[in-house]
Amino acid sequence: MAAARTKIMLVDDHAIVREGYRSLLQKQPGLQVVAEAGDGAEAYRLYKEATPDLVIMDLTMPGLSGIEAVKRIRQWDHAARILVFTMHQNVAYAVQAIRAGAKGYVTKSSPPEALLSAVFDVLKGRTALSPDIDHELALSRLAGEPQALDVLTPREFEVLRMLLAEKTTDEIAETLHVSPKTVANTRYLIKSKLSVTSDIELVRLALRQRLLAVPGIDA
């Protein structure tokens, strides 16, 4: 009788990216990709249908982001094992993803071996971080101002991310299924926690902490 294979769900809004790491994963003995999703809402729905052993999740996707999807999946299944695989090399995203319930964080600039190593670590119950994130985590502690990764909750970080993407209060409320008043209150809390008083100061802080990419400089 053949041994049971580990079921994996891939979540990324780029089909060609999913195809690439589907091929990589299915070359490994015992691994099988059983579901794929292109956004966070679809990931949450498919997780309940496919019940995978491991989810490999991107962060930046249309609509519901990866961090919010991680949070919702973990609320539905406290035992869910989720590994974030993303372009974001900023440690703030890694910390917030782990706080939301992810068990690992690997950047897409890492070699394929780093992703595979993280997959098996998370399946064994370990927390996995790619080497570049370990390095960034150490550097982040040297800054003197309040760090978004330290003071914001995953939900506050998600609202901040959407504000920096120039989403309106109503758009954020619709995506997160909360009231506009809740979004406005969260916006106030974010500014208070980060010790800024205006949207301009918030953007400047986001640039300093590399939460906001500068076109042509940071992809």
Describe this structure in words.
This protein has 2 domains: 134 residues, Response regulator (Rossmann fold), CATH 3.40.50; 61 residues, Arc Repressor Mutant, subunit A (Orthogonal Bundle). It contains 11 helices and 6 strands. α2 packs parallel to α3 and α9 crosses α10. The protein is globular. With 219 residues, it is of the alpha/beta class.
Task: Give a quick rundown of the structure.
The chain is α/β, with parallel strands linked by helices and 219 residues long. The chain has two domains: 6-139, Rossmann fold, CATH 3.40.50; 148-208, Arc Repressor Mutant, subunit A (Orthogonal Bundle), CATH 1.10.10.10.
Q: What is the SS-derived class?
A: alpha/beta
Counted up, domains total: 2
CATH superfamily placement of the largest domain:
Response regulator
CATH architect. name of the largest domain? 3-Layer(aba) Sandwich
Strand residues, percent? 5-15%
Helix content: 40-55%
Radius of gyration: 18 Å
Give the rounded overall mean pLDDT. Answer: 85
The CATH class of the largest domain, by name, is Alpha Beta
Calculate the terminal CA-CA distance, rounded to whole Å: 48 Å
Main sheet attributes: strand count, strand direction, barrel closure: 6 strands, parallel
- Treating each run of at least 4 consecutive H or I residues as one helix, how many helices? 11
User: Unreliable segments (pLDDT under 50, ≥5 consecutive)?
Assistant: 214-219
User: Which outline best applies?
Assistant: globular
CATH topology of the largest domain: Rossmann fold
- Give the strand tally: 6
Order of helices and strands: EHEHEHEHEHEHHHHHH
